[in-house]
Write a structure and sequence with these properties.
This protein is α/β, with parallel strands linked by helices and 313 residues long. It has three helices and 13 strands; from the N terminus they run αβαβββββββββββαβ. It has a single domain, classed as Ribonuclease Inhibitor (Leucine-rich repeat, LRR (right-handed beta-alpha superhelix), Alpha-Beta Horseshoe), CATH 3.80.10. The chain has a 13-stranded parallel β-sheet, sandwiched between helices.
Length: 313
């Protein structure tokens, strides 16, 4: 059964990535007039400056850089910049002069903080800083009202960045692999949020946190959650829920509110049974219960309640 559950969640991630790919294509339509042959991604600042062309895209990936080349300020039409996997310990001021920047990838460096000047990048839609050393997110990030996706996985954050709650346009938030234990109850202010990944943190109490009504994918696996908030079950648009690897002992009868749920991963918790109301989840295709102390007779009863659902136990 564990092989089956793996297959289901591979499908989950495939669907998520497919949706994100479509989203990126949609975002890129604003630059649809750019011919990738005429305007390629440059990997050398000198070549870019000598090209005689308007430079829209640059990548300094794995160049061993300690600083961004200062001449980059001359590329005032740049909308895509990849500086991942270098040796940066700070974000150089030249970066914040790039007012047309829309996509910024700073993954895999050693940056400890985001300067106030981040608020200058008004056109930024995608901001990725996975695998750095951030302990907090600058409040000025809230000035970036065009942001659609943020990636702060594998940093040292211990609270959910409140600046993100001030950006209702956000559609995707990735905070996996931090040390987050607290989330202020303003999450539902992010009206357009569809993807939220808070897996592998230190969350144990969600209180009665309210979730954005457009949320479709929620990842809370590998935390220390004892109870799911009642407000979660008001998420009528939620399709994929992963709360595996927590300490959950029961699921509320209000689970019936998840009208559009397609896949639910409850593996490796402390569940002994599920409420009879789960039979009302007519769209549920996959239910993963491996690693819970559930009796075989209970599983058989669940199969009766959910005849169209594939149950893994």
């Amino acid at each position: 059964m564990s092989v089956g559950s793996l297959g289901c969640w591979q499908t989950f991630y495939f669907m998520k990535k497919l949706f994100l790919f479509i989203s990126i294509i949609s975002l890129s339509q604003i630059k649809a007039q750019i011919d990738p042959v005429k305007y390629p991604t440059f990997t050398n600042i000198e070549d870019a400056l000598k090209s005689g062309k308007t430079v829209y895209s640059m990548s300094f990936r794995e160049k061993g850089l300690f600083n961004i080349p200062p001449q980059i300020v001359k590329l005032d039409s740049l909308f895509f910049l990849n500086i991942m996997a270098n040796k940066l310990e700070k974000m150089d001021q030249e970066l914040f002069a790039l007012k047309e920047l829309e996509i910024l990838n700073v993954n895999e460096n050693s940056i400890k903080y985001i300067p106030d000047e981040v608020g200058n990048l008004k056109k930024l839609t995608t901001f990725s800083m996975n695998l750095n050393s951030l302990t907090s997110i600058n409040p000025n990030l809230a000035k970036l009202q065009n942001l659609k996706a943020v990636h702060f996985d594998a940093n040292n954050l211990n609270t959910f960045p409140e600046a993100l709650m001030e950006i209702p346009a956000l559609e995707e938030i990735n905070l996996q692999g931090n040390q987050i234990s607290f989330i202020a109850d303003r999450l539902d202010q992010i009206k357009n949020l569809k993807f939220l990944n808070l897996s592998d943190n230190q969350i144990n109490d969600l209180g009665n946190l309210s979730f954005p009504e457009n949320l479709k994918y929620l990842e809370l696996q590998q935390n220390a959650i004892n109870k799911l908030p009642e407000n979660l079950f008001k998420s009528r648009n939620l399709e994929f829920l992963n709360v595996s690897g927590n300490h959950i002992t029961e699921i509320s009868a209000k689970v019936k509110g998840l009208k559009n749920i397609v896949s639910m991963n409850l593996a490796n918790n402390n569940l002994k049974d599920l409420p009879v109301e789960i039979k009302q989840l007519k769209n549920l295709k996959t239910l993963i219960l491996t690693g819970n102390p559930i009796e075989k007779s209970t599983i058989e009863n669940l199969k009766t309640l959910l005849p169209e659902t594939q149950i893994y136990f």
